[in-house]
């Protein structure tokens, strides 16, 4: 072999040559029976434990769900709940008593849950202005907030249907005569508070129209500190959703009775929605949801079954 | 003289050979030119006259571009939005700026702009290339008469009609010119028309006698004249015009016209007048757009798009009905939407209006079902695939330096589905290079070399012998396989030997007559005459090769060239031709010194396919008049004199031998003429020549006939039409790949059959079905009475009989070959008979059509294409194959020695036939699978994604809200899932190229369409449906209402959407990884890179100002990444999506494996190295059952021997029942 030959040979071996000739080194995995069985078994051995662990985490969560929308309407008004809830002159006080079945370790999260409430309706979702929330009424291009954009020719801050329909039931919790301390700070995402809702933006001209939707806001508190609003503005994906209200930072023992004083202001009666109060502890995985664990176990076990079936079939009809 | 090529269109009488037959123009008188179609008037040497109407003609500027700077935008946009899918996306983009749109405008417009922009960029680039090519032509320089006899250089584009142009040797003609004069006194010039009709031989043009004096620059000082002629038209071989010069009118005909793009050869210079310039020139008028072809997969893809469109329409309707119902009955109660503020889109009072407007919204929303990027991705993939084809070093021909070329990239995958190959013979299967191999002179056979057919036969014999041994010793098939491999090596080694052949066209070896030894042979005078005929009786032109000092020949046909080369090698070197004579240098004369001899050519009676002979009448230096004739043996033998039959018997025997050896044969004869006899005949002949009228040709023929009789036979020649390198092997492989091969040739039947044998398309023991129109008796007596009807009935009967015979054949190994000639084919292709003909042809293992015209080639191709409904591939090299190439589903041109016509019309070009094997079996197979898998996957991914949008609708009151951020959706098709699928389409290999070639039967997956049938497509769609369900519902349930973080936060729409989208990205990319079987670092990079890009995007997007990212602000960093549930949901959904598919492919691979699965496994276990036996067994198993090719020959032989052996055994047993075993 002469020098030029060798050079040519080397040149041929270069990556680009291999690339153009489609002979790049490649790994060509082949699903041989051994591999298949290994993969299925491996999947099984990953998923079953993961499933069991998640299941355990989910089971460790204690949850109290109490529906209150009907009970909190006094008996005489139950025929026409809508007019009851819309009538400002009638006091909306209501008391519930919740029995704690199991020890609940602090923090205990308080949620309100609304059902059949289409927060994900396109008309609703679009009806907000992120820029206005950040920059205040100086920001004018708020056409997306239709139909809650102006009132008396003045811009509404925060504008849009979402803010306008702010949830306004309030809850206080009493255990054995002593009010439980409810922490209502830090219930919204930090980034929302810091970057999406202006620190110098104050509610302005809010709920001043003839049509009043939901809760009012304290005009002296900047939007970045109106955490109820911030949580509410995170529209839910499904028509049934929970939103964080606050945290009880005391442990609740089994058989404790918690009395909830609530103001039943929010109108879910018009569209037949349900309102629920949820007290829940959390695990490392979040709230109570067995599904993830069960699904993992299911997937894991089916892949183990597949592995076994495969093995048997393979033994029976070996190629 | 046997000619391989069809030159029907070319009227030979206008060429050199008939020049002495042509009556001079003066006698003919001017054409009467009037009426429409003959309006063109050209003022010679007065180009200024052509600056204004009515003489203003098109300039010589040519443009083949589709667009120019102004028209590009509107025209290209129109082209783009011609596609239904693009139009749909344009609609959605327009809607997206209205409030109806569920997405932001930019997220709809950006992908469309990207996709359309990319396609337009490709168009622009292609057009730019065309423009540059045009510019190169337009700026070529040519000498043009300026004034006062001074010529100066001008660019081509400046040449005007009426200009006097001086073209020099080896230059192209800038426009269609009228030849005025040339460097030769008699005003002839030689022209190469390769670019026009693909013929390499030179043609002679001849100027009018009156203009011969205009042969120097000064002569044009005061030259004027007027040409009246036909309008621009595309007919290359006709021209009608008059030339008015010196107050006389002369008729012009095509022999004075030099066509643009042909080349001046062998002539120092010519003067001409531009008649047709630029786009008016005949060659530009001839430029036809090649029909745009679409592949089967693409056509089927349209149906899938329709299916998806209907699905889209359906779910849009469901959505809008749901929306209307919700709006009417529920929305009035939803106070938080302020239903009292109605607009057109939310109007509980008018639910129908809302429903209709929502339908528009929904059509946009679910548009993700129609993959916007599909077209552009496929385009990108095909271009890359094509570049791989172009780059393939194993399809690069080192001799000519031509690589394979995919000229259109949109048929790549069609290469993998070919069912029938229709091949030209000359130049495709054979080199169109004749080798003088043997001759028979005076009854003695000379030449010891063997032809390829003989060699093949010898090999066959050797194998048969070995086979018998093998049968006796092992009795296994194994041995046969190994021999086949040995056979291949034998053949290849022979090819190498051929390669060394020193003289092109001459493979003769025989010391008896080489190197002047013939002088010592007994019949030396006859041998000398034989060589002289070879050297004199032809129409070729010698060309001195200045480097070597030897002569090469421009001959009309390669046989003629081979004769001249042979004559030269024998010592009779033809070195000069004038109008009246042929000069031959005789190296070995009796005197012992080289002598230059001149033979005056008195008459030349040219070759036609009807006459099948050629004659020259010459006067040698002694004044002796000789008639030298060469022609087809039967024709010559009929015309022999009584005493000329001395060698007839021996020669005939030799001719038969040569014929069997697959050689082309010609017989040579001569006759001595008396002066008086000749002059008497010549008078008659001249009379016939100058006669005018339709019967002139017949008259001439009859007169010629009178002279060509009483010939004395000298001998015969045998030339070999050389097969191209590797053709038999290639045909064998293609046959094993299950392809049918038809040969369509212009050659006569015997030659075609010989070549058929040489390529193993035919073999001994194959039943040949010959269908011919003229049975012998009908020809003789009834020719006048045989009506078309009778002939047709006769043919139909032959066809039905043959079909019957095939049906009744019991032997499963019996093979049939159909051989049909052009005349019969003309009837067989008629509507009422073609189905029967096709039915018969399909049943035959090989089909050979001989003597077919280019038109018939195209018709046969169409018949096969439309009749069988399968993919056809036509391969050819010459202008006569253009029709066939354009008609077939795929046209392949051989970019060999012949012109570019076939290549220009083709979709792919290869340098040699043997590259077809790699083109089909490797690239075709790959491209088919790649595109099929890619398209399937595309639909899968868009269904999986698009349907999740639909499910979510049901949870939003069908309001048209999407759960994903607009940007996610925008990136989905364009960035996040496009590169992996492109890498699938470009790099996927089920098996390596070597294995493809070793297991040609794998190719059948394409023609059987295993990877793109409805079963598979629907399977993929079902998989998409399943994935969408899993992705959506698992996520919905996991993130239902409870907290998803240990901090108690619940998931909002952004969190759920992002998680769901993450699951989609993972599931889809894992799916494609499961689909692939070949991972280079590129695939790894693209697949895992896409997933990485998604996270990267999410991170960067989250970092942007919240006014841009909205609810996705910091979603990954803050909300999702710290949540274990996000990761476990991703894992669960990804695995759950892919588990069924995984199980499916595992079970399929293990229990119903396809061919490539088995091979992959063997390769994987390295069984091919460890267990050679198993490897070759698998190889033989994976071969397509075939009846042609030499593998089939071997198999047939083995069967035959086995049969014999069995018989022997049984007979032995009968004789001696107790045989020790």
Automatic annotation (TrEMBL), chain A:
Database matches in Pfam families: CDC50 (PF03381)
Keyword Transmembrane in annotation: yes
UniProt signal peptide: none
Highest taxon in the source lineage: Eukaryota
Location of the protein in the cell: Membrane
TM annotation in the entry: 30-52, 291-313
GO cellular component: endoplasmic reticulum; Golgi apparatus; plasma membrane
Keyword presence, Transmembrane: yes
Main location: membrane
Assigned protein family: Belongs to the CDC50/LEM3 family.
Protein name according to UniProt: ALA-interacting subunit
Gene from which the chain derives: LOC111274833
UniProtKB/TrEMBL annotation, chain B:
Active site location: 424
Pfam name, any one: PhoLip_ATPase_C
Alphabetical list of InterPro entries matching this protein: ATPase_P-typ_cyto_dom_N (IPR023299), ATPase_P-typ_P_site (IPR018303), ATPase_P-typ_TM_dom_sf (IPR023298), ATPase_P-typ_transduc_dom_A_sf (IPR008250), HAD-like_sf (IPR036412), HAD_sf (IPR023214), P-type_ATPase_IV (IPR006539), P-type_ATPase_N (IPR032631)
Membrane topology: Multi-pass membrane protein
Residues noted as binding Mg(2+) in the record, renumbered to the chain: 424, 426, 877, 881
Segments forming domain P-type ATPase N-terminal: 42-109
Class of this enzyme: translocase
Domain of life from the UniProt record: Eukaryota
Sequence ranges assigned to domain P-type ATPase C-terminal in this UniProt record: 903-1153
GO cellular component: plasma membrane
Cell compartments where the protein resides: Membrane
Keyword terms: ATP-binding, Isopeptide bond, Magnesium, Membrane, Metal-binding, Nucleotide-binding, Translocase, Transmembrane, Transmembrane helix, Ubl conjugation
Record EC number: 7.6.2.1
Catalytic activity: ATP + H2O + phospholipidSide 1 = ADP + phosphate + phospholipidSide 2
GO BP: phospholipid translocation
PROSITE patterns: ATPASE_E1_E2
Transmembrane segments annotated in the record for this chain: 303-325, 356-378, 938-955, 967-987, 1017-1040, 1052-1073, 1085-1104, 1124-1147
UniProt-recorded Gene Ontology molecular function terms: ATP binding; ATP hydrolysis activity; ATPase-coupled intramembrane lipid transporter activity; magnesium ion binding
NCBIfam families: ATPase-Plipid (TIGR01652), ATPase_P-type (TIGR01494)
Family to which the UniProt record says this protein belongs: Belongs to the cation transport ATPase (P-type) (TC 3.A.3) family. Type IV subfamily.
Protein name per UniProt: Phospholipid-transporting ATPase
């Amino acid at each position: 072999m002469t020098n030029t030959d060798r050079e040519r040979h080397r040149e041929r071996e270069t990556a680009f040559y291999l690339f153009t000739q489609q002979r790049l080194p490649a790994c060509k995995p082949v699903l041989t029976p051994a591999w298949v069985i290994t993969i299925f078994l491996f999947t099984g051995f990953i998923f079953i434990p993961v499933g069991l662990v998640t299941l355990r985490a989910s089971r460790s969560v204690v949850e109290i769900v109490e529906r209150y929308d009907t009970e909190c309407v006094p008996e005489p008004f139950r025929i026409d709940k809508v007019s009851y809830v819309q009538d400002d002159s009638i006091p909306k006080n209501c008391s519930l008593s919740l029995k704690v079945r199991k020890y609940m370790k602090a923090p205990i999260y308080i949620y309100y849950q609304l059902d059949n409430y289409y927060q994900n309706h396109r008309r609703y979702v679009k009806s907000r202005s992120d820029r206005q929330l950040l920059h205040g009424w100086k920001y004018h291009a708020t056409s997306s907030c239709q139909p809650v954009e102006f009132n008396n020719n003045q811009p509404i801050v925060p504008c849009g249907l979402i803010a306008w329909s702010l949830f306004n039931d309030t809850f206080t919790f009493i255990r054995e005569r002593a009010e439980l301390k409810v922490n209502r700070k830090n219930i919204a995402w930090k980034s929302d508070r810091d970057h999406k809702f202006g620190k110098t933006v104050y509610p302005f001209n809010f709920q001043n129209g003839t049509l009043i939707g939901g809760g009012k806001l304290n005009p002296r508190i900047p939007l970045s500190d109106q955490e109820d609003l911030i949580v509410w503005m995170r529209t839910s994906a499904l028509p049934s959703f929970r939103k964080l209200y606050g945290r009880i930072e005391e442990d609740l023992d089994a058989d404790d009775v918690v009395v909830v004083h609530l103001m039943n202001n929010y109108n879910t009666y018009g569209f037949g929605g349900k309102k629920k109060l949820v007290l829940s502890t959390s695990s490392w995985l979040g709230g109570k949801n067995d599904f993830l664990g069960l699904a993992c176990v299911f997937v894991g076990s089916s892949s183990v079954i597949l592995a076994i079936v495969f093995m048997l079939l393979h033994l029976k009809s070996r190629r | 003289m046997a000619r391989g090529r069809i030159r029907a269109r070319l009227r030979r009488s206008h060429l050199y050979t008939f020049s002495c037959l042509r009556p001079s123009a003066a006698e003919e008188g001017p054409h009467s030119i009037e009426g429409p179609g003959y309006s063109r008037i050209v003022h010679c040497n007065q180009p200024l006259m052509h600056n204004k109407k009515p003489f203003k003609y098109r300039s010589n500027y040519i443009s083949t571009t589709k667009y120019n700077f102004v028209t590009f935008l509107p025209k290209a946009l129109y082209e783009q939005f011609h596609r239904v899918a693009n139009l749909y996306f344009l609609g959605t983009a327009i809607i997206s700026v209205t409030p109806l749109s569920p997405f932001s405008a930019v997220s709809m417009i950006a992908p469309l702009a990207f996709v359309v922009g990319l396609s337009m960029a490709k168009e622009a680039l292609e057009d730019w290339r065309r423009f540059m090519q045009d510019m190169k032509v337009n700026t070529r320089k040519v000498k043009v008469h300026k004034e006062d006899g001074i010529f100066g250089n001008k660019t081509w584009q400046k040449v005007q009609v009426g200009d006097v142009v001086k073209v020099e040797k080896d230059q192209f003609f800038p426009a269609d010119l009228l030849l005025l004069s040339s460097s030769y006194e008699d005003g002839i010039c030689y022209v190469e028309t390769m670019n026009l009709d693909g013929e390499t031989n030179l043609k002679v043009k001849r100027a009018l006698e009156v203009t011969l004096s205009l042969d120097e620059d000064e002569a044009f000082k005061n030259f004027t004249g007027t040409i009246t002629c036909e309008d621009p038209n595309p007919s290359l071989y006709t021209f009608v015009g008059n030339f008015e010069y010196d107050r006389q009118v002369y008729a012009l005909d095509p022999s004075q016209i030099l066509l643009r793009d042909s080349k001046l050869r062998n002539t120092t210079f010519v003067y001409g007048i531009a008649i047709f310039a630029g786009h008016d020139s005949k060659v530009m008028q001839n430029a036809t757009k090649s029909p745009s072809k679409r592949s089967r997969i693409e056509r089927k893809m349209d149906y899938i798009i329709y299916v998806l469109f209907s699905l889209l329409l359906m779910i849009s309707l469901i959505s809008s009905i749901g929306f209307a119902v919700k709006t009417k009955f529920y929305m009035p109660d939803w106070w938080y939407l302020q239903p009292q503020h109605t607009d057109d889109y939310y109007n509980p009072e008018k639910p129908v209006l809302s429903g209709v407007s929502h339908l528009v919204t929904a059509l946009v929303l679910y548009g993700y079902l129609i993959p916007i990027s599909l077209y552009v991705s496929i385009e990108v993939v095909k271009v890359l695939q094509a570049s791989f084809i172009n780059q393939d070093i194993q399809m690069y021909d080192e001799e000519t330096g031509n690589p394979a070329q995919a000229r259109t990239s949109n048929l790549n995958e069609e290469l993998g589905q070919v069912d029938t190959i229709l091949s030209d013979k000359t130049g495709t299967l054979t080199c169109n290079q004749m080798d003088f191999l043997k001759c028979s002179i005076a009854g003695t056979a000379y030449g010891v070399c063997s032809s390829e057919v003989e060699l093949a036969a010898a090999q066959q014999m050797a194998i048969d012998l070995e086979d018998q041994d093998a049968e006796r010793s092992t009795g296994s098939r194994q041995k046969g396989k190994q021999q086949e491999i040995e056979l291949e090596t034998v053949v290849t080694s022979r090819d190498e030997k051929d390669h060394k052949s020193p003289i092109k066209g001459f493979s003769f070896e025989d010391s008896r007559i080489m190197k002047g030894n013939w002088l010592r042979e007994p019949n030396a005078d006859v041998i000398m005459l034989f060589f002289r005929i070879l050297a004199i009786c032809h129409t070729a032109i010698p060309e001195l090769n200045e480097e070597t000092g030897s002569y090469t020949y421009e001959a009309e046909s390669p046989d003629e060239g081979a004769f001249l080369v042979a004559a030269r090698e024998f010592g009779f070197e033809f070195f000069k031709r004038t109008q009246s004579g042929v000069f031959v240098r005789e190296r070995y004369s009796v005197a012992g010194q080289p002598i230059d001899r001149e033979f005056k050519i008195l008459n030349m009676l040219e070759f036609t396919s009807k006459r099948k002979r050629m004659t020259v009448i010459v006067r040698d230096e002694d004044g002796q008049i000789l008639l030298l004739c060469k022609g087809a043996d039967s024709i010559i033998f009929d015309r022999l004199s009584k005493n000329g039959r001395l060698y007839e018997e021996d020669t005939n025997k030799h001719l038969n031998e040569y014929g069997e050896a697959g050689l082309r044969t010609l017989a040579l004869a001569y006759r001595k003429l008396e002066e008086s006899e000749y002059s008497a005949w010549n008078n008659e002949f001249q009379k016939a020549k100058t006669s005018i009228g339709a019967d002139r040709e017949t008259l001439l023929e009859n007169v010629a006939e009178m002279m060509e009789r009483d010939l004395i036979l000298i001998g015969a020649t045998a030339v070999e039409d050389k097969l191209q390198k590797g053709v038999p092997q290639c045909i064998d492989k293609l046959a094993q790949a299950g392809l049918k091969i038809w040969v369509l040739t212009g050659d006569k039947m015997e030659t075609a059959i010989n070549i058929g044998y040489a390529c193993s398309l035919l073999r001994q023991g194959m039943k040949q079905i010959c269908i011919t129109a003229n049975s012998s008796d009908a020809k003789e007596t009834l020719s006048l009475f045989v009506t078309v009807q009778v002939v047709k009935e006769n043919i139909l009967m032959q066809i039905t009989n043959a079909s019957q015979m095939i049906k009744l054949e019991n032997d499963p190994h019996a093979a049939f070959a159909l051989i049909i000639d052009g005349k019969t084919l003309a009837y067989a292709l008629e509507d009422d008979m073609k189905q029967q003909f096709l039915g018969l042809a399909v049943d035959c293992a090989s089909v050979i059509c001989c003597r077919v015209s280019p038109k018939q080639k195209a018709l046969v191709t169409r018949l096969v294409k439309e009749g069988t409904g399968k993919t056809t591939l036509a391969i050819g090299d010459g202008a006569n194959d253009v029709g066939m190439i354009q008609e077939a589903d795929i046209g392949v041109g051989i970019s060999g020695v012949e012109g570019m016509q076939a290549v220009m019309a083709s979709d792919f070009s290869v340098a040699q036939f043997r590259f077809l094997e790699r083109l089909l079996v490797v690239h075709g197979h790959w491209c088919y699978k790649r595109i099929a898998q890619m398209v399937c996957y595309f639909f899968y991914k868009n269904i999986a994604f698009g349907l999740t949008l639909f499910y979510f609708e049901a949870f939003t009151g069908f309001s048209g809200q999407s759960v994903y951020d607009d940007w996610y959706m925008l990136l989905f098709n364009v960035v996040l899932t496009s590169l992996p699928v492109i890498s699938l389409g470009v790099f996927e290999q089920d098996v390596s190229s070597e294995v493809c070639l070793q297991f040609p039967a794998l190719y059948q997956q394409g023609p059987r369409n295993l990877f793109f049938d409805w079963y598979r497509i629907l399977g993929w769609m079902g998989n998409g449906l399943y994935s969408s369900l899993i992705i959506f519902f698992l996520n919905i349930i996991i993130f239902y209402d409870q907290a998803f973080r240990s901090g108690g936060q619940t998931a909002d729409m952004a969190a759920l959407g992002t998680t769901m989208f993450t699951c989609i990205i993972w599931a889809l990319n894992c799916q494609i990884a499961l689909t692939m079987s070949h991972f280079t670092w590129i695939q790894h990079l693209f697949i895992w890179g896409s997933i990485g890009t998604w996270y990267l995007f999410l991170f960067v997007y989250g970092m942007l100002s919240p006014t841009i990212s909205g609810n996705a602000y910091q979603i990954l960093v803050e909300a999702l990444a710290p949540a274990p549930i996000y990761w476990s949901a991703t894992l669960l959904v990804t695995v759950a999506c892919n588990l069924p598919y995984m199980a499916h492919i595992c079970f399929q691979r293990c229990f119903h494996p396809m061919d490539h699965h088995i091979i992959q496994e063997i390769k994987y276990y390295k069984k091919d190295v460890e267990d050679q036996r198993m490897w070759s067994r698998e190889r033989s198993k994976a071969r397509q059952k075939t009846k042609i090719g030499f593998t089939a020959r071997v198999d047939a032989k083995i069967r035959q021997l086995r049969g014999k052996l069995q018989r022997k055994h049984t007979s032995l047993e009968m004789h001696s029942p107790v045989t020790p075993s």
